[in-house]
Specification:
Ubiquitin-like (UB roll); Porin; 27 strands; 603 residues; mainly beta; four-stranded mixed beta sheet; 16-stranded antiparallel beta barrel; elongated; 9% helix
């Protein structure tokens, strides 16, 4: 049967950078040295987004691939005997040693050796081997007793022979061919080899139905596949099988527009943006992403290209982003403070564990990023070192290697996402080197987690079920850091109730909890209104005894209201109440504790 993609699979239909709920933002930081409102780029490309992972709909094995007929039985050429036999040893022909060894199979038939047995029991011995294969998922494999001389096995009158050796023939099933077709209404953009190569990973000898179903389940979760069905049948020769697969492509082009007040007030907090993504640019599963956003005092672009390297979903990504800022917040707007922050990255990411069944899905991926980050600042048109660590012309250049690990596990009731990243700053490629920290030489560990849990007994429609969302973010640095690498607190994505980047330090801890309570829905939960009480906590500190102005801890509580209309439209309004006082002008919505975000997906 054909299984359609449910909306709740959205989380698994995105590359892991999104499925992990991790997001890169261009934030604005105020340098500690001068306390001027100089904008800086985000301290790390792994800042968690407030968008949350989604509960998947996990499908039963039979929905993907029905169990084919069982393996061959003993041929009719061997007649039954009324007399008994004695078997000294069983030898097995045709089995793969890597699956079951000769010694292991002989132990399974120990009850049939060195004693008198009937011919019917001899056939039972072969059936037991078949059952062993089926139990382990090799349902197209089996065993039988081939034609052979059994004279020496017969028990003679008044005496018992020492027994004989009986050969058991094993036929291990394998896929003779994989035939791939598309549904009539499916587009023809995706290359069939994309699907075939991922199914070939399960084409081992002997064929294991569990691995084959898992390969189909993983394809169902693939963002490029909307639905997939398969049928396994016998091939032209004994032990061979034919797999017929039919699938429908998902729409790979998406365009979204958004508006929120997530930027630092020094460059204008109200941000407008547009994102365009083609997830299958050339038919190979390669993705092109382009985004642009601006405020009254800033412009930012973000572009990336990701190409798959292997059927295990290994990818190579090239990305570029740049943010141009102009301070418009009084009284600093008179100084004509400007900056731009280009960022270049090459990332290799390889999943090393990928599992999917009717109970859960999970993935462990490792990756390495080579990054170059720069910041250039000027005052009245002249380069000037406003930020700590910058050179005399106001330039900061960071070269780094970032090794990351990502883990995702999902079930019917919960999704757990974790990310760890080790960043090594190096002094090469004309990076900033100072007599003392901060500069391009550093070591930073950053760990992030999200946990989403359904609280109600109703799990068939997660949209209308109460949920608990927990988030955390930790950064530990070996030495003082430049603002480009620092940890920030405050704003719509961390401590609501404070202005964006109210605190920025070398080290920090952030935890947050949201309780999502549906209070109104229609259209079977496609349109839902949620009431969201929340609590945010964060603390941050500098390394190497570097002074930081008080306070170092921010805490807030508040209430949010979110309206979702399917996958097309979402709007959210949050009001945060700060529990720790900090200096604030209360000039913008942000500084008054109000945050909004609106997003519309047109395709």
């Amino acid at each position: 049967m054909c299984v359609k993609r449910p909306y709740s699979l959205w989380f698994f239909c995105k590359p892991l950078v999104v499925s992990l709920g991790l997001w890169t933002i261009s934030s604005v930081s105020l340098p500690a040295r001068s306390q001027s409102p100089l904008p800086a780029q985000s301290p790390s490309p792994v800042t968690p987004n407030r968008s949350q992972p989604q509960i998947p709909e996990l499908l039963s094995p039979q929905e993907f691939l029905p169990i084919p007929p069982s393996a061959p039985t003993s041929p009719e050429q061997i007649p039954d005997f009324a007399r008994e036999l004695t078997v000294k040893r069983f030898d097995f022909v045709g089995n793969t040693e890597g699956i079951f060894s000769q010694d292991y199979l002989r132990k399974q038939l120990g009850e049939f050796t060195n004693k008198s047995i009937t011919f019917a029991q001899l056939l039972q011995a072969a059936s037991k081997i078949t059952e062993l294969y089926i139990k382990e998922g090799y349902v197209t494999s089996g065993a039988y007793i081939p034609e052979q001389t059994l004279k020496d096995c017969l028990v003679q009158a008044k005496q018992t022979l020492k027994g004989c050796v009986v050969t058991v023939q094993i036929i291990e099933g394998w896929l003779q061919d994989i035939r791939i077709t598309r549904e009539a209404k499916s587009s023809r953009r995706l290359n069939d080899n994309y699907v075939r190569s991922r199914l070939e990973l399960a084409n081992t000898k002997p064929l294991n139905i569990k691995r084959l179903r898992e390969a189909l389940q993983l394809l169902q979760l693939d963002p490029l596949i909307e639905s997939i069905s398969a049928e396994l049948s016998g091939g032209t020769n004994p032990g061979t099988n034919l797999l017929k697969v039919e699938y429908k492509e998902a729409d790979s082009l998406s365009v979204s527009v958004s508006a929120d007040n997530s930027r630092n007030p020094s460059v204008g907090s109200f941000k407008r943006g547009v994102e365009i993504e083609q997830a299958n640019l050339t038919g190979l599963g390669d993705k092109l992403y382009i985004a642009y956003n601006n405020t009254d005092g800033s412009n930012a672009i973000d572009a990336s290209y990701t190409i798959p390297l292997n059927p295990h979903n290994g990818t190579l990504s090239f990305s570029y982003s740049n943010t141009w800022n102009n301070i418009i917040e009084p009284p600093f707007d008179k100084l004509d403070i400007e900056s731009n922050s280009p960022n270049y990255e090459i990332t290799f990411r390889q999943p090393v564990v990928r599992k999917a069944n009717q109970e859960f899905t999970q993935e462990l991926a490792l990756g390495l990023t080579v990054a170059r980050r720069e910041s250039n600042t000027s005052v009245l048109g002249v380069g000037f070192p406003i930020s700590v660590g910058a050179d005399a012309q106001g330039n900061t250049r960071i070269s780094s290697l970032r090794f990351f690990q990502e883990w995702t596990r999902s079930s019917f009731r919960q999704v757990f996402v974790a990310r760890s990243q080790f960043s090594f700053g190096i002094g090469g490629f004309n990076a900033t080197i100072n007599d003392k920290a901060p500069d391009s030489r550093f070591f930073v560990w950053r760990g992030q987690m999200q946990w989403l849990r359904l609280l109600g007994s109703e799990t068939s429609n997660p949209r209308i079920t109460p949920k608990l969302l927990l988030r955390s973010d930790v950064q530990l640095a070996s030495r003082a850091l430049v603002p480009l690498e620092q940890f920030t607190l405050g704003g719509i994505f961390s401590i609501r109730g404070y202005r964006q980047d109210a605190l920025f330090r070398d080290n920090g801890i952030f935890v947050s909890g949201d309780l999502q309570l549906p209070i109104y829905s229609r259209g079977n939960g496609e349109n839902v209104l949620q009431l969201i009480p929340f609590i945010d906590f964060g603390t941050a500190w500098n390394s190497s005894g570097r002074d930081a102005p008080n306070p170092n801890t921010l805490v807030s509580v508040g209430l949010g209201l979110q309206w979702q209309m399917g996958e097309k439209f979402s709007a959210r309004l949050d009001y945060g109440i700060p529990l720790v006082d900090i200096e604030s002008r209360d000039r913008t919505w942000q500084e008054k504790g109000l945050y909004f975000s609106i997003q519309y997906n047109s395709l």
